[in-house]
């Protein structure tokens, strides 16, 4: 049986019209409603706090949720470093959060500000175990702050927990002080950071109160 092109085109046109009607109905009517919120990656933040910051009410049309706007609302929370929002049909809005990783802190005007692994101050709070106090004239996000956290990040967890402060004079002058008042001059934060970290771990096992590991191949001490 031969089928005319007109009939074929008519069938295709009808199907396209049906798809368009269904698409408009799904978009315009709350067929897929937000019933569940899945919050991922939070440790310091509370899931309910994240849900509220997203600003998406329960029962909202899932397909019409502005994911960018919802993510921007969560990103305004102090601990939120990056945020993505996605839809999981038929009824779940998933909010994935990457929190700032506090590695250092500064004290200013009797307030403690946490610094993340990018050298950015992001909130005021009690520093976690292992965070190192930065001293000196340091601006948030500056090259000096970034160099400081890079040096801290090179240290092993065991060594970092023995450190009290890191004094930053400039990008070429970083000096650690341990909790038992030993001073280790790091010098610049550079490509030799890993070697300096190994030298740091070694000198902590030796006698001596002041060490210079700026050249990890030629470590010196003052006594």
Automatic annotation (TrEMBL):
Domain of life: Bacteria
Gene3D superfamilies from the UniProt entry: 3.40.50.10960, membrane protein fhac (3.10.20.310)
Pfam families in the cross-refs: FtsQ_DivIB_C, POTRA_1
Keywords: Cell cycle, Cell division, Cell membrane, Membrane, Transmembrane, Transmembrane helix
Domain POTRA: 32-100
UniProt xrefs under PROSITE patterns: POTRA
Keyword ATP-binding found: no
BP GO annotations: cell division
Membrane in keyword set: yes
Cell location: Membrane
Residue stretches spanning the membrane: 7-29
Name of the protein this chain belongs to: Cell division protein ftsQ
Organism: Corynebacterium segmentosum
């Amino acid at each position: 049986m031969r089928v005319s092109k007109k009939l074929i085109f008519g069938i295709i046109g009808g199907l396209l019209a049906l798809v368009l009607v269904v698409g408009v109905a799904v978009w315009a009517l709350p067929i897929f409603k937000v019933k569940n919120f899945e919050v991922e990656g939070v440790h310091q933040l509370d899931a309910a706090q994240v849900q509220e910051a997203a600003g998406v009410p329960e029962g909202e049309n899932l397909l019409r949720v502005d994911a960018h706007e919802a993510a921007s609302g969560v990103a305004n929370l102090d601990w939120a470093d990056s945020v993505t929002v996605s839809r999981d049909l038929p009824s779940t809005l998933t909010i994935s959060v990457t929190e700032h990783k506090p590695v250092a802190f500064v004290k200013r005007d009797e307030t403690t500000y946490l610094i993340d692994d990018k050298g950015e101050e992001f909130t005021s709070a009690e520093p976690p175990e292992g965070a190192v106090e930065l001293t000196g004239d340091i601006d948030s996000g500056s090259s000096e702050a970034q160099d400081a956290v890079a040096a801290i990040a090179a240290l092993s967890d065991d060594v970092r927990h023995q450190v009290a402060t890191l004094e930053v004079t400039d990008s070429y002058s970083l000096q650690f002080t341990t909790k038992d008042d030993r001073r280790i001059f790091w010098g610049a934060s550079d490509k030799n950071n890993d070697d300096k970290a190994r030298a740091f771990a070694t000198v902590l096992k030796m006698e001596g109160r002041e060490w210079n590991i700026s050249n990890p191949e030629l470590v010196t001490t003052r006594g």
